[in-house]
Every structure is written in structure tokens, then in C-alpha cells.
Specification:
7-stranded mixed beta sheet; 8 helices; 35% helix; alpha/beta; single chain; globular
């Protein structure tokens, strides 16, 4: 059994028995340990490209933000005020201890909680796949509420691995997002990234959605 396979098995065991915060307390957090501080190349490339007319003011959200690297990158690149939320207080504390950015804030929060907030951009990487499949329809409904008309949802679909009946991460394919997002979105980009990190090659797809 590879070290990564062992780490992922241990991660799943901790989530099942003690919850998400325990994985941070014990530092068994596979996505963070494999990628370090790296911004995933597909996110960097799509944000820095001129293929999408990204908002340059307003609010963005990163659910399941972890250490907050993606939130800081989006704020620095687009000038948006970015909120990172995570259900793990330990993850939020780690995010707050990183180099601060004036347009970024982090808080413990439940993505599914009722709110009047709306956002110009939301980025989902490893959040969708962390949810049990039974929760995906509610994810779709909440995304429709949270993203403003004309706003964007970036989904980095990972890991595109063979089917399993357990998780997290739970088995995923790009059409799983489409099935729960419904007809209130326009797909503006849907592609295999030109560049992926070493652990993501042939295992991911980036899809950008615009809220109608």
C-alpha cells in the first residue's frame, strides 16, 4: 500500500469517527499535504487568462477553504473581497495564521446555512467531492442562491478516479455537477486543463459556469 493510499485511508477513518476538525488537529489532510502551498495550475491559468470576463469588484466565496491559499490568490488576482469558510475551526485558525491579505477573511461556517449573502464568484475544489452524494442536490440549490445573476462558479473536478462506493473523496464525474446545478447556469468553459500538478495529471477537469 502506498504512503498516499495509507494517508487517505487514515483520513477517511478520522472523518468517520471524529469529524473534519480532527483531521486538521492530527494533520492528516491529504489535499493540503500533497499540494502544499501550491495554487492548482488550472485555477491559476483560468483566472489569469482573458477567456472569461471575470468580475473585478464584488464578493467571492471559497467553501472548504482549508489554509486559504486559493482565497488569497483570487483576491490578489481579481481584486475581489474573498471569504473563506470551513467547518473546521482548526483549518480556519491555520488560514488566519498565514500571510494576511486585506481583502480576505476567514470564518468557521456552514455552506448550507440560510443566508442573504450573494457572491460574484465561487470556487469549488474538493468541496463537492467531500460531500456524501445524497447532499449534492442541496449543494446545487445553494449554489443557485449564493451566486448572483451574471456571476461565476469555478469547479475544479477532482479526483476523476475509478468508481468507489466510499469517501471522501466520493466518486465524481463532471456530469454529476451538471445534474444538480440544473438549467439556471451556462457552461462557459469545460476542458481538461493544459497544465496540472503532478498528482492531478489525467485526473481532473475544469468547468466554469455562469449564473443566468
Amino acid at each position: 500500500m502506498s504512503t498516499r493510499t495509507e494517508e487517505l485511508a487514515r483520513f477517511r477513518e478520522i472523518v468517520a469517527t471524529d469529524g473534519w476538525d480532527a483531521t486538521w488537529k492530527e494533520q492528516v489532510i491529504p489535499w493540503e499535504s500533497w499540494s502544499g502551498r501550491e495554487i492548482q495550475p488550472p485555477l491559476r491559468n483560468i483566472i489569469e487568462s482573458d477567456r472569461v470576463e471575470w468580475p473585478r469588484q464584488g464578493q467571492a466565496l471559497v467553501p472548504g477553504c482549508g489554509r486559504g491559499n486559493d482565497a488569497r490568490f483570487i483576491a490578489a488576482s481579481l481584486g475581489l473581497k474573498v471569504t473563506g469558510i470551513d467547518i473546521s475551526p482548526t483549518a480556519v485558525e491555520a488560514a488566519q495564521q498565514e500571510t494576511p491579505h486585506e481583502n480576505v477573511s476567514f470564518r468557521v461556517g456552514d455552506f448550507f446555512a440560510p443566508t442573504d449573502e450573494q457572491f460574484d464568484l465561487i470556487y469549488d475544489y474538493t468541496f463537492f467531492v467531500a460531500l456524501p452524494p445524497s447532499m449534492r442536490p442541496e449543494w446545487g440549490r445553494q449554489m443557485a442562491k449564493l451566486v448572483k445573476t451574471g456571476g461565476f462558479l469555478i469547479t475544479l473536478v477532482f479526483p476523476l478516479d475509478p468508481q468507489v462506493d466510499f469517501g471522501p473523496p466520493f466518486f465524481v464525474r463532471p456530469n454529476h455537477y451538471e445534474e444538480v446545478l440544473g438549467s439556471v447556469w451556462e457552461k462557459v468553459i469545460d476542458e481538461v486543463p493544459a497544465v496540472s500538478s503532478a498528482t492531478h495529471i489525467d485526473r481532473e477537469r475544469i468547468v466554469v459556469w455562469k449564473r443566468l
